TrEMBL record:
<dbReference type="InterPro" id="IPR000343">
    <property type="entry name" value="4pyrrol_synth_GluRdtase"/>
</dbReference>
<feature type="binding site">
    <location>
        <begin position="105"/>
        <end position="107"/>
    </location>
    <ligand>
        <name>substrate</name>
    </ligand>
</feature>
<dbReference type="InterPro" id="IPR006151">
    <property type="entry name" value="Shikm_DH/Glu-tRNA_Rdtase"/>
</dbReference>
<keyword id="KW-0521">NADP</keyword>
<feature type="binding site">
    <location>
        <begin position="48"/>
        <end position="51"/>
    </location>
    <ligand>
        <name>substrate</name>
    </ligand>
</feature>
<dbReference type="InterPro" id="IPR036453">
    <property type="entry name" value="GluRdtase_dimer_dom_sf"/>
</dbReference>
<dbReference type="InterPro" id="IPR018214">
    <property type="entry name" value="GluRdtase_CS"/>
</dbReference>
<keyword id="KW-0560">Oxidoreductase</keyword>
<dbReference type="GO" id="GO:0019353">
    <property type="term" value="P:protoporphyrinogen IX biosynthetic process from glutamate"/>
</dbReference>
<comment type="function">
    <text>Catalyzes the NADPH-dependent reduction of glutamyl-tRNA(Glu) to glutamate 1-semialdehyde (GSA).</text>
</comment>
<feature type="domain" description="Tetrapyrrole biosynthesis glutamyl-tRNA reductase dimerisation">
    <location>
        <begin position="312"/>
        <end position="413"/>
    </location>
</feature>
<keyword id="KW-0627">Porphyrin biosynthesis</keyword>
<dbReference type="Pfam" id="PF01488">
    <property type="entry name" value="Shikimate_DH"/>
</dbReference>
<protein>
    <recommendedName>
        <fullName>Glutamyl-tRNA reductase</fullName>
        <ecNumber>1.2.1.70</ecNumber>
    </recommendedName>
</protein>
<feature type="domain" description="Quinate/shikimate 5-dehydrogenase/glutamyl-tRNA reductase">
    <location>
        <begin position="162"/>
        <end position="297"/>
    </location>
</feature>
<feature type="binding site">
    <location>
        <position position="111"/>
    </location>
    <ligand>
        <name>substrate</name>
    </ligand>
</feature>
<dbReference type="Pfam" id="PF05201">
    <property type="entry name" value="GlutR_N"/>
</dbReference>
């Protein structure tokens, strides 16, 4: 049976350098490289600063993911491979914030929405993954509405501010420079706005965006090229851009701190992936560099504080997993029913045409006679299929997979159901085990399921 499998590389097992090296191409390249595989029918890629996760629908999912892991060149020691049930539970936990470095953080839900939407727009998703991700997003919202798991320091941005506050014994009277006005940068800036700091500067590649955020928070906008000048007066620099190269090199920082008060520490916090700040800057006097790995400390404190709320979230997830599995069972029954209707309707149409041709040999057949024959065969087919439809749906809800398998085999249904658009040109010469030509599989054959209830009446 074709189900979901996943491969997960996250902060739980991998260091930031290992996650950075896990895939060297862009998201689009990764997504389509997977989807072009012969046995991958659907796929979604989640790539953030804390994780690289791949979800595929394939009849050979394990071998596909292991093969891809080898291509990535990353150690299998930092990877987790999940089957269908584990993948669903992990995805719901991820959306609920239970798998994040900081339990309950809100940013991951927005990232799941965005990256799933990207895959859907790229045409790499289908019914199975659409169902899973729709449910995950719904569960993520429910957990945040019904628990307090996202209260307090919940995002990487706010955790970076908390870390700075802890290292410097408070941020009162400090000058802070935020590099990057993307989603993470905005979270950092908003968290800083709640502190009693002296001044906040926002630097960004697009100056207009920096101006908008600075105006909203009562700060100052800085052009990215002028960052070196601002470093001279900053106490804290938090950088979280999406740049593929270093924003702050050792040379830039070294020049900026010349002539600076030697008793004054410069704290640099790099929350970007790939990294924004060259690691060797930590060797400079009075310069301290922290990155995402340092936020694990904050995560541990937050975990203790939210332990009780996490238990409530776990209960919600278990309830929703049951509903999701029931939904998949119904969908499987619907696929079988859809195939069965198609098979019977093909017979109906062929036999109706034979009857019309035989009658035409004896006398003229008009429009009324043809419509009567069409209505008759249509009604017979629906009446024959009405009871099997009910039984199949009941079997699915009861989890009677053996019964569904028997029906599929008897009627030669669900034989390697692949998406028509992924078939190779020479596949048209092939025949299924049932002797039905591949060319007879219509792209919209599953859409017939929407009309089943109407037909059964």
């Amino acid at each position: 049976m074709t189900e979901i499998s996943s491969m997960v590389i996250s902060h739980k097992k991998a260091k930031i350098e290992e996650m950075e090296s896990a895939w060297h191409g862009d998201l689009d390249g990764l997504l389509h490289h997977l989807y072009n595989h012969e046995y991958v029918y659907e796929c979604v890629v989640l790539k953030t600063c804390n994780r690289v996760e791949i979800y595929v629908v394939s009849p050979k999912s394990s071998s596909v993911l292991f093969s891809f892991a080898k291509e990535m060149g990353a150690s299998t020691h930092i990877m987790d491979f999940y089957g269908h049930d584990e993948s669903l539970e992990h995805l719901l936990r991820l959306a609920g914030g239970l798998e994040s470095m900081i339990v309950g953080e809100d940013q991951i839900l927005g990232q799941i929405k965005e990256l799933y939407a990207y895959s859907k727009k790229s045409g790499t998703t289908g019914k199975i993954l659409d169902t899973a991700f729709d449910k995950a997003i719904q569960v993520g919202k429910r957990i945040r509405n019904e628990t307090r798991i996202n209260k307090g320091s919940v995002s990487i941005g706010s955790a970076a501010v908390d870390l700075a506050e802890e290292i410097l014994d408070g941020l009162t009277g400090k000058t802070v420079l935020v590099i990057g006005a993307g989603e993470i940068g905005v979270l950092v800036a908003k968290a800083l706005a709640e502190k009693d700091i002296e001044a906040i500067y926002i630097a960004n590649r697009t100056f207009k965006k920096a101006e908008e955020i600075a105006y909203e928070l009562g700060g100052y906008a800085v052009r990215l090229n002028d960052v070196q000048t601002q470093l001279k007066n900053a106490d804290v620099v938090i950088s979280g851009t999406g740049a593929p190269h270093y924003i702050l090199t050792r040379e830039i920082v070294e020049k900026a701190i010349k002539g600076r008060d030697k008793t004054r520490k410069l704290l640099l916090i790099d929350i970007a992936n790939p990294r924004d700040i060259e690691e060797s800057v930590s060797e400079l006097d009075n310069v301290e560099l922290c990155n995402i790995d340092n936020l694990r400390v904050i995560s541990e404190k937050t975990l203790k504080m939210r332990k009780e709320e996490a238990k409530k979230a776990e209960d919600i997830i278990q309830d929703e997993i049951k509903l999701l599995n029931l939904q998949y069972k119904r969908q499987r029954a619907d696929r079988i029913i859809s195939d069965l209707y198609k098979q019977i309707y093909d017979v109906r149409i062929r036999e109706r045409e034979k009857a019309v041709n035989r009658l035409c040999a004896y006398h003229t057949i008009g429009k009324i006679e043809t419509e009567v024959l069409d209505d008759l065969t249509h009604s017979i087919a629906n009446k024959i299929l009405a009871e099997p439809t009910k039984v199949l749906r009941q079997a699915a809800e009861l989890g009677n997979d053996e019964f569904l398998d028997v029906v599929s085999r008897i009627f030669c249904l669900e034989k390697d159901r692949v998406k028509v658009e992924k078939m190779k040109p020479d596949c048209e010469k092939m025949k299924s085990d049932c002797g039905i030509k591949v060319e007879k599989i219509k792209p919209d054959c599953e859409s017939g399921i929407d009309r089943i209830s109407e037909k059964s009446n």
